């Protein structure tokens, strides 16, 4: 049964990826799809910046600007940043805990396809009458008034992809609790695993309110409900609450894994154990917990009253404490370490001060009284890009370089990597630093143009120049990826030479069953411990035996496709007579696929011990 | 222990729903799923409370005009009893008594169907007698969404249990399907608990005014 060793044609590879349930392949799918949406969102950002480069510009119309702006924010958050992080979690976390797969391989695939179909649906709006234009927050008073189907694309697309994310979250939680290798106690888990764990818990509790909010929005717009319509007794502030009860934890869903990635990189290239490991874990959990208590800081000017505003202001400021703990721990990890400035490490070192700036403006914004001044100005735009780009995107770029050899078995070019890094870092600060001052000078957020002679010209043109730097950096990264893939120089298990956790103890890329024998974990940084004792490999925790693996399945694709079809039906139900039948058809496809899954027994298959031994000989020969 | 093993009364473990690794994963994952569902219903409840009796004009029916104790009491009893019968079913599942489990599950399904029937009657009644509909007011939207989401869960739960019963009717219990039965009944309890809250928050508090 050694089908895995055979060469395959294009069709077979495609089919393999359409049906795969292997977390490493799903990771690659996430990376490709998320990378595609990242480039798309980046192009939208360039349109925004070109339009705002000079006063009274008419590169795009006001209406189109609103669509580009909305799609930029929505794409970046839901379709780029989060899926790319889910990709790295899939690629690395199961290896870090010494597991052969995730707890629910089938659901893992389902999560991906739901995300992809949701994202495609959302972006098809461009070709089908116009994209959503009420901002990524889609406040009800704007979104109910928006004409055409743009907002419906937003609502239905995010609903579908949101289900996918939720499923992914549950999968990771169970994986981490149930699938750890012998000896891998909670307090020996690498920090990226810990942050994956907490981020997954946040997904589990934050996405349902969004689901509910989006249902209300869909019902109001397409099914005649009145949740947000004051003339019928409705209340538009309900949307704001539901959205931000989701929305604030969402930013931690993004930043916690980024923290995890940097913790791994900093300790690897400082060649030191992470300083204050247990306080890092504690801070992660605390941030996750506090993340649910602060949503109304986005609503200071909504009029909730001084008491509510004060409580939420204080709660928000409290988050600075665990975050500060983390900053100091990273600094102390580097302190006295023998640092190697590889590309990932450059990102990590520059992340600390960049993110700190975003944190400082965060505390400024948390001062409710002062926020009346900052709210809806470019100061806010500067703040959230400092945390999101200076935190999340830097982490994504760092992880791309850091984990590339583990995922693909070949190393990205370090020279090009450093060029990308410098261009991106400089471009980032050029673009967003000056936006703080634009905001303080009164430039409002979400405007399609500005007037001359108000002192806003210089700031805006500098910001646009910076955006071009970042665009070039990303292009160089893409070139780097192409060159690296073409050359395809193979690397060994531990290509950076300083790997500490389990993923570096196995081949790059790992065999599809990950670990031939589950490793015995003897402490934090288990691979490092073994290396320090002069061993090259992990000590196995079990004798060689048969390995149980899940079967591939096309059903996840079908379930997601059904919802994709149904969404078109729901949207066009009122405009065309075929709407309702299509809605029903789509739901039937989904339900029947689920039904098939339920009644068809799927026991998976076994890789036999003899095959594993044969393969070993094959490799040595 | 292995999912495909042929089981007998002697080898049947004490907790068949958690005997294999797959089963353990399912068990835990399902609890997490119910955690998410709890937040979902919490959001629906909060919205309902915010929009309760919020109507455009004074001639709309309010909750104190709508709800009647006999009907909702009957529905509550039906659902509570069905939770109990599903407990019996799981008791027999743990004792490896397949036939008896099927019987009690069947009774559970009948009770659930009766509940759904009354719910449909109830909605119909409100729409036709009181012109209280999904689109008539924010109150209507919130009411039908909250109670309807619950009703949708009941329908899905019934479908699930029925599919499991038919699929396994000829082959009896195994470590492969025992967790499936167990989770379906867990889901059923969850639905029941949500209903208790609906009964209290929507109906009891609604009748008081
Ligand atoms: C990489 C270069 C990027 C540039 C040049 C850029 C630029 C911009 C600009 C100019 C705006 C409009 C601000 C306004 O008028 O209110 C904006 C909004 C936004 N950006 Fe970015 N951005 C970038 C990356 C990102 C990333 C990576 C994310 C998220 C992961 C992101 C998330 C957002 C969000 C959520 C908004 C708000 C959209 C809205 O108001 O609805 N951006 N960005
Ligand atoms: Cu926030």
Automatic annotation (TrEMBL), chain A:
Pfam families listed in its UniProt record: COX1
Uppermost EC category: translocase
Compartments it resides in: Cell membrane; Membrane
Reactions the enzyme catalyzes: 4 Fe(II)-[cytochrome c] + O2 + 8 H(+)(in) = 4 Fe(III)-[cytochrome c] + 2 H2O + 4 H(+)(out)
Signal peptide: none
Database matches in InterPro entries: Cyt_c_oxase-like_su1_dom, Cyt_c_oxase-like_su1_sf, Cyt_C_Oxase_1, Cyt_c_Oxase_su1_BS, Cyt_c_oxidase_su1_bac
Record's keyword terms, sorted: Cell membrane, Copper, Electron transport, Heme, Iron, Membrane, Metal-binding, Respiratory chain, Translocase, Transmembrane, Transmembrane helix, Transport
Pathway per the UniProt entry: Energy metabolism; oxidative phosphorylation
Transmembrane segments: 27-48, 68-92, 104-128, 153-179, 191-218, 238-262, 274-295, 307-332, 344-370, 382-403, 415-438, 458-483, 554-572, 578-596
Keyword Electron transport: yes
EC number: 7.1.1.9
Domain Cytochrome oxidase subunit I profile: 9-522
Highest taxon above the source species: Bacteria
SUPFAM superfamilies: Cytochrome c oxidase subunit I-like
Membrane topology of the entry: Multi-pass membrane protein
Recorded family membership: Belongs to the heme-copper respiratory oxidase family.
Record's function text: Cytochrome c oxidase is the component of the respiratory chain that catalyzes the reduction of oxygen to water. Subunits 1-3 form the functional core of the enzyme complex. CO I is the catalytic subunit of the enzyme. Electrons originating in cytochrome c are transferred via the copper A center of subunit 2 and heme A of subunit 1 to the bimetallic center formed by heme A3 and copper B.
NCBIfam families: CtaD_CoxA
Protein name: Cytochrome c oxidase subunit 1
Encoding gene, per UniProt annotation: ctaD
UniProtKB/TrEMBL annotation, chain B:
CDD domains: Ubiquinol_oxidase_III
Membrane topology according to the record: Multi-pass membrane protein
Annotated Heme-copper oxidase subunit III family profile domain residues: 28-207
Keywords (A to Z) from UniProt: Cell membrane, Membrane, Transmembrane, Transmembrane helix
Keyword flag Transmembrane helix: yes
Compartment(s): Cell membrane
Domain of life: Bacteria
UniProt xrefs under InterPro entries: Cyt_c/ubiquinol_Oxase_su3, Cyt_c_oxidase-like_su3, Cyt_c_oxidase_su3-like_sf, Cyt_c_oxidase_su3_a-hlx, Ubiquinol_oxase_su3_dom
Keyword hit for Isomerase: no
Membrane-spanning ranges: 28-51, 71-91, 103-121, 141-166, 186-206
A Pfam family it matches: COX3
SUPFAM superfamilies attached to this UniProt entry: Cytochrome c oxidase subunit III-like
Protein family: Belongs to the cytochrome c oxidase subunit 3 family.
PANTHER family (alphabetical): CYTOCHROME C OXIDASE SUBUNIT 3 (PTHR11403:SF9), CYTOCHROME C OXIDASE SUBUNIT III (PTHR11403)
Protein name as it appears in the record: Cytochrome (Ubi)quinol oxidase subunit III
UniProt source species: Mesobacillus maritimus
């Amino acid at each position: 049964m050694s089908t895995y060793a055979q060469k395959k044609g294009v069709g077979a590879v495609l089919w393999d990826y359409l049906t795969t349930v292997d977390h490493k392949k799903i990771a690659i799918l996430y990376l490709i799809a998320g990378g595609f949406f990242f480039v798309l969102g980046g192009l939208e950002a360039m349109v925004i910046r070109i339009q705002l480069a000079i006063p009274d510009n008419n590169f795009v119309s006001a209406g189109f600007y609103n669509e580009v702006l909305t799609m930029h924010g929505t794409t970046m958050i839901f379709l780029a940043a989060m899926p790319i992080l889910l990709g790295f979690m899939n690629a690395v976390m199961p290896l870090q805990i010494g597991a052969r797969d995730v707890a629910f391989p089938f659901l893992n695939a389902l999560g991906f396809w739901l995300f992809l179909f949701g994202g495609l649906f959302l972006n098809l709006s461009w070709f089908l009458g116009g994209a959503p234009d009420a901002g990524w927050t889609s406040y009800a008073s704007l979104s109910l008034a928006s004409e055409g189907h743009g907002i419906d694309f937003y609502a239905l697309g995010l609903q579908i992809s949101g289900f996918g994310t939720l499923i992914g979250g549950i999968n990771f939680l169970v994986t981490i609790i149930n699938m750890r290798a012998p000896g891998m106690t909670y307090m020996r888990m690498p920090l990226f695993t810990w942050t994956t764990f907490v981020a997954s818990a946040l997904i589990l509790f934050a996405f349902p309110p969004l689901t509910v909010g989006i249902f209300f929005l869909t019902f109001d717009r397409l099914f005649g409900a009145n949740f947000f319509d004051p003339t019928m007794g409705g209340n538009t502030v309900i949307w704001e609450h539901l959205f931000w009860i989701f929305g604030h934890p969402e930013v931690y869903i993004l930043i916690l894994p980024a923290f995890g990635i940097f913790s791994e990189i900093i300790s690897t290239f400082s060649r030191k154990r992470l300083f204050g490991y247990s306080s890092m874990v504690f801070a992660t959990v605390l941030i996750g917990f506090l993340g649910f208590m602060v949503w109304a800081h986005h609503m200071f000017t909504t009029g909730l009253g001084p008491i509510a505003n004060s409580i939420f202001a204080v709660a928000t400021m409290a988050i600075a404490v665990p975050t500060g703990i983390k900053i100091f721990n990273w600094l102390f990890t580097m302190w006295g370490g023998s640092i190697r400035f590889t590309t990932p490490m450059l990102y990590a070192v520059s992340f600390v001060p960049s993110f700190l700036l975003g944190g400082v403006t965060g505390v400024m914004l948390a001062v409710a009284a002062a926020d009346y001044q900052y709210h809806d100005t470019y100061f806010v735009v500067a703040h959230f890009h400092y945390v999101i780009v200076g935190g999340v995107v830097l982490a994504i770029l760092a992880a791309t370089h850091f984990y590339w050899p583990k995922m693909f078995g070949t190393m990205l070019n370090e020279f090009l990597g450093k060029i990308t890094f410098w261009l991106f870092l400089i471009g980032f600060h050029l673009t967003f630093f000056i936006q703080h001052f634009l905001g303080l000078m009164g430039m409002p957020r979400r405007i399609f143009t500005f007037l001359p002679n108000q002192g806003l010209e210089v700031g805006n043109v500098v910001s646009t120049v910076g955006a071009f730097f970042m665009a070039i950096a990303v292009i160089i990264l893409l070139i780097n990826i192409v060159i690296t893939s073409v050359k395809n120089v193979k690397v060994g298990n531990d290509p950076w030479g300083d790997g500490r956790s389990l993923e570096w103890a196995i081949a790059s890329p790992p065999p599809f069953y990950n670990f031939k024998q589950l490793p015995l974990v003897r402490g934090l940084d288990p691979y490092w411990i073994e290396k320090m004792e002069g061993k090259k490999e992990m000590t196995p925790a079990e004798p060689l035996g048969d390995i149980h693996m899940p079967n591939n399945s096309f059903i996840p694709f079908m379930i997601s496709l059904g919802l994709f079809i149904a969404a078109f039906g729901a949207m066009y139900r009122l405009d065309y007579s075929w709407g309702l039948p299509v809605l029903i058809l789509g739901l039937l496809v989904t339900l029947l696929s689920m039904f098939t899954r339920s009644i068809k027994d799927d026991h998976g298959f076994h890789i036999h011990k003899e095959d594993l031994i044969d393969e070993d000989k094959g490799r040595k020969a | 222990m292995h999912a495909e093993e042929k089981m007998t009364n002697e080898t049947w473990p004490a907790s068949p729903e958690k005997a294999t690794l797959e089963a353990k994963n399912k068990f835990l994952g399902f609890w997490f799923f119910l955690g998410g569902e709890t937040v979902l219903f919490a959001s629906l409840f909060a919205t309902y409370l915010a929009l309760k009796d919020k109507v455009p004009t004074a001639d709309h029916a309010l909750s104190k005009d709508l709800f009647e104790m006999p009907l909702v009491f009957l529905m509550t009893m039906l659902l509570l009893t069905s939770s109990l019968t599903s407990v019996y079913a799981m008791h027999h599942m743990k004792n490896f008594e397949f036939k008896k489990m099927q019987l009690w599950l069947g009774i559970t399904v009948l009770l659930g169907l009766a509940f759904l029937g009354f719910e449909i009657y109830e909605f119909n009644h409100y729409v036709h007698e009181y012109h209280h509909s999904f689109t008539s007011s924010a109150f209507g939207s919130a009411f039908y969404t909250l109670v309807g989401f619950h009703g949708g869960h009941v329908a899905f739960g019934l479908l699930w249990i029925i599919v499991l019963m038919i699929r396994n009717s000829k082959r009896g219990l195994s470590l492969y399907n025992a967790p499936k039965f167990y989770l379906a009944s867990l889901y059923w309890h969850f639905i029941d608990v949500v209903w208790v809250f609906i009964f209290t928050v929507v109906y009891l508090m609604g009748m008081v005014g």
